[in-house]
Amino acid sequence: MDKNKIGIIVVVYHNAAMTEKFIHNELTKLSTQFYLVVVNNAATYEDSMNLAKTCNLRFINNDIEDEIPDDNRFLIWSDKNLGYAKGNNKGVAFLNRIGGFTHFLFSNDDITINDKNIINELANKIDENNGIGAAGPRIINLEGIDQNPKDQYISLYREIGWIILAPFRKSKKKRAIMANNSALSSRITYWTSGAFMLVNANAFNQVGGFDPYTFLYYEECILAERLLKINLHFYYDATVSVIHFEGGSTTKNRKNQLIGIDSKIHYYRTYKKVNKFVIAIYRIIEYINYKLHA
């Protein structure tokens, strides 16, 4: 019997076929017992009922008040588009009604799982070190580029420099090689990607979960800052991996680019206490860059 009680939260958005495939083909690979809650985002009652049926999930109409049946696979829903942070917080709040969870796994549904023991491996890394509050595996996109780990805080001055000096930066290929080389060794890191991330449940609840101000992007480094306040760090485990069909769970468009800018500004202003004047300069440069590439 597993010593841990794992809750998996998957926030989904308008891609029933991919969600069904992930649940039936990927989560079934796992050797670890788990509870699952799918949060159907920006959905209708009828669509949510249908998705629950095709994915063999227990449909919960009101996740705050309805009695929770004796089961371990659920679907809850929202008619609003909650985004990553609020959507995952909603899933955690539902699991907290069940109680007793030791870890929460946040996963996209555009993921291929390579290691059946991945949750146990990540959980062991968290449990073996009192200074670790979250852990992520090696995440490789379809271009073969590693998306973990993120070892250090990037100052807003550097962000501004990257935009201004973009034509002179290393090529995408060279940056990819550097990322892949960095991904070969396990270590404590600043943050790891929220596409597939395990957290200590008590620590996550203690820091108030994800920052609900953010809609999409920067949730992980903000969580890293929240965990640091209680002396906990992220851990990167290079021994286990997933493949991320990057962009499959979120449509890349111009609106998302603006959302990313707002989330980044919130991170720098609220958590890194960057000077307002520097933030104003960054905002102007980003919006000029946005218009130039419209």
Describe the structure.
There is one protein chain. The protein has 294 residues and is of the alpha/beta class. The chain has one domain (6-153, 175-247): Spore Coat Polysaccharide Biosynthesis Protein SpsA, Chain A, CATH 3.90.550.10. Helices cover 40% and strands 20% of the residues. The chain has 10 helices and 10 strands. It has helices at 16-26, 45-54, 83-98, 118-128, 156-164, 172-182, 201-206, 219-228, 254-271, 276-292; strands at residues 6-12, 35-40, 58-59, 73-77, 103-107, 111-113, 132-141, 187-189, 196-200, 233-244. Strands 1, 2, 3, 4, 5, 6, 7, 8, 9 and 10 form a 10-stranded mixed sheet that branches. Strand 1 (6-12), helix 1 and strand 2 (35-40) form a beta-alpha-beta unit. The longest helix has 18 residues, at 254-271. The mean pLDDT is 92.
Find the count of extended strands (DSSP E, 2+ residues): 10
Helix coverage percent:
40-55%
**CATH architecture annotation name:** Alpha-Beta Complex
Whole-Å distance between the termini? Answer: 55 Å
**Segments where pLDDT lies below 50 for 5+ residues?**
none
Task: List the helices and strands in order.
Answer: EHEHEEHEEHEHHEEHHEHH
Major sheet summary line? 10 strands, mixed
By CATH's scheme, which homologous superfamily applies? Spore Coat Polysaccharide Biosynthesis Protein SpsA, Chain A
